[in-house]
Amino acid sequence: MKTAAWDFVSTRAEVFGIKRICRVLEVSRSGYYRWIADAEARAGRQFEEDALIEEIREVHAEHRGNHGALRVHAELRGFGPGAAGAAPARDRAR
After folding, report:
1. Is 77 helix (H, G, I), strand (E, B) or coil?
2. SS3 state of residue 34
3. Could you give the 3-state DSSP secondary structure of residue 85?
4. Three-class SS of residue 26?
5. The dihedral of CA 65, 67, 73, 74: what is its sign?
6. I want to staple 74 with a disulfide (CB 3.0 to 4.6 A). Which of 18, 19, 29, 79 is the partner?
7. CB–CB of 32/8 below 8 Å?
8. pLDDT of 20-79, one tens digit each?
């Protein structure tokens, strides 16, 4: 909810002023300014997350959708197929 409120403050700050909008929406101005200051960090985290999701999709597609979360995770960590210790313990027992 707060993000939506701070988006609203950002878009209308020139018309109504930050102080007035924050008072009406009952959000703190300090929170709004912190949200503005953290925007670059949020964008960086989102970029990293998007890159990881793309990598996960590539690994999943490479194995025709047969790999589950455990095997995709193992491959992303460098313990892909054929690597020593890559197979989960339940597979080694067979």
Report:
1. coil
2. helix
3. coil
4. coil
5. negative
6. 79
7. no
8. 999 988 888 998 899 888 888 888 888 988 988 888 888 888 888 777 788 888 888 876
